């Protein structure tokens, strides 16, 4: 089974488990992974992403706690429901940007100036 399209950037300041969790939630809420879809095993997804199995396990556990995934002995991990509070893609991108800006030591004003500069440039 191939892994869903997930990309983890360990340099961006957002915890890798959170990146996996948020991307899975977006894939599920967007219908790319519909209810009933079987996900790769923790070990397989971890190997595909170059992460520790515990990192992927935490992402799966978070989604299980929310009722989005279920794990059964014979069926593996399956999409059980749509996320009740699917992350807004713009809000998720903003959260990631803020985390990176903070890790770079940028102030709020500097971060906002950088965003404004890109809006003006395009």
Secondary structure layout plus pairing:
Layout (H helix, E strand, L loop, with lengths): L15 H14 L12 H8 L3 H13 L3 E4 L3 E4 L9 H15 L4 H14 L1
Antiparallel strand pairs: 1-2
Radius of gyration: 16 Å
Strand adjacency order, main sheet:
1-2
User: How far is it from the N-terminal to the C-terminal residue, by CA?
Assistant: 40 Å
The secondary structure category is: mainly alpha
Q: Please summarize the sheet with the most strands.
A: 2 strands, antiparallel
Percent helix: 40-55%
Q: What is the overall number of helices?
A: 5
Question: Which stretches are poorly predicted, pLDDT < 50 over at least 5 residues?
Answer: none
Overall form: elongated
Describe the model.
Residues 14-82 form the HTH gntR-type domain. The protein has 122 residues and is mostly helical. It is built from 5 helices and 2 strands, in the order αααββαα. Strands 1-2 form a two-stranded antiparallel sheet. The chain is elongated and about 50 Å long.
Brief rundown of the structure:
The protein is mostly helical. 52% of the residues lie in helices and 7% in strands.
């Amino acid at each position: 089974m191939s892994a869903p399209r997930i990309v983890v950037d360990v340099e961006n300041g957002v915890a890798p488990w959170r990146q996996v969790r948020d991307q899975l939630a977006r894939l599920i809420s967007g219908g790319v992974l519909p209810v009933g879809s079987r996900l790769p095993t923790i070990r397989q997804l971890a190997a595909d992403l170059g992460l520790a199995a515990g990192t992927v396990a935490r992402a799966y556990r978070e989604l299980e706690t929310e009722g989005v995934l279920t794990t059964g002995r014979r069926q593996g991990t399956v999409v059980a429901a749509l996320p009740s509070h699917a992350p807004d893609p713009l809000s998720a991108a903003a959260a990631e940007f803020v985390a990176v800006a903070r890790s770079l030591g940028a102030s709020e004003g500097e971060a906002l100036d950088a965003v404004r500069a890109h809006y003006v440039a395009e």
